Amino acid sequence: MKTETIAGMAALMALACALAADAPSGGIEVRLPKPLAAGTLRHACEMRRFEVPLKEPWDLSSAAGVAFWMKCEDPDAITGTWLYFRTGDGYYRTRVEKPSAPGEWTRCIALRSKVRLYHWNTHVSLHELHAEPNPADLPDWRRVTGFQIVFSLAVDHASADASVRVRDFSPVSSGSPECAAALKRADAAEKAAIERTKAFAPRGGERRYLGTHVWGLDGDWDKTCRMLKGYGITDIIPLMAYDGKAYYNSRIEPPAPIIAKRGDALKACLAACRKHGIRCIPWRSCWELYTVDSEKELNRLEAEGRLQVSFAGKRGNWFCPTHPGNVQREIDGMMELAEAGADGLLLDYFRYPGVDYCFCPRCRGRFEESIGRKIDDWPQAVRKDPALAKAWSQFRMGVLTDILRRARAEMKRKTPDILFASATAATLGGAEARGQDLPRWCKEGLFDMLFTMCYCTTHKMLANDVKNEMEFMRGSKTVLCPMICFASGAIPFNDPDEIARQIQVVRDAGLPDLSFFRLEEYTPMALDALRQGPLAPVPGK
Prior knowledge:
22 strands, globular, Jelly Rolls, alpha/beta, five-stranded antiparallel β-sheet
């Protein structure tokens, strides 16, 4: 994501929090950034959120939910609206109706009965939640400390005014007429969406990939694989390792403490996949060190020159890809998973964090060597001088490409039949900003498959992404598999018809397979609906 986009979102949230000091009374107005033009660098899902803190916790244990008023100047700019209840250590999400009339106040109701868990505060809560169910993970309706309003934006909509106002939050009684009417509308909308889903025809002979975190559902891989097989899922992509933490007995990464209680997640997953005839493609997150909580360890790595340095000269918690020890660690980590008996390996975060990295002395030296001269005005020169900026971008992409060549050669020498894949940015601009030279990677066949992280909120956005991706992959043997993000923020579980439309986009493009992100508690609800339409069994296939 561009630095200015991040800064803009931070400023947006800070402004909203300041304006919300008197919540729930009074109004909050937030002007959403204009949706970006299709094909430009954007944040996955193109979502905007802002906080509504409460001065004192609310007790909603006897309420059916909350109501508030919202006004949107251009409703067509918004594809979805969600309210998140904040309580305990997590957030709990439900979809709310967006205003349909421009510039008019609309009464919105967020129903407790439609709430689903959504943790996003730490890696631990995201990736270890299924392993150790904790009472703190359940909503404590007696102590709701705030809300978040989240909007997904239509990237292909040139909005003249995307400002939104919300005001007057209040509890809603379960016996109130407006609550009953809201519940009736929500139920009717879900049923209608399922009926629309049935209109999409199934297709046989395709592989269907599903990304998931560590433990499957309820910490039971056998149960999870049996369920997914019934839904027609052929391959699962379980997260198994970061730099700094592994969920199996690794020689390369420190094993997560939780496996002492739960056991080796990779071993359990592989066994369940073999039993139920599902391929297992473990997922390794590269370079980032956000799971390393020890400041002492990070300081040690910084002293050894192993961490990336930002444009502003600050330490980043990512391994630098020009350090030989870091490179060998990544390749060793890849090979450890590849040689564990898996059917494939998917690399995630095989990139730089963004355009602000890495400007460490070693990267500077390597870059100067590549261009054959010293740079006095470092690092400003690589942004002031267009020729240097282009050379710098090529250098960063070359660093990662060279490592991939080494990894690919070793992978195919030791495990020649394994599927070698990567999750990448969905656009060339987004990829280059992160050091991913997708056209070259495809031309050289460094990956067998690219799972592009489209995560689009509408099928029109996905169609545009797929068109652009197929263009730069033309003539390549690398298989393109755009990831459809369902039941995980971009598209809610109760919008199966939108998921069906995105499935149809992929099929209409002539691509052979489907991929989805990700498996959560309510994913079966989406799969139940899709199994009646585009994912229905095809006799003989």
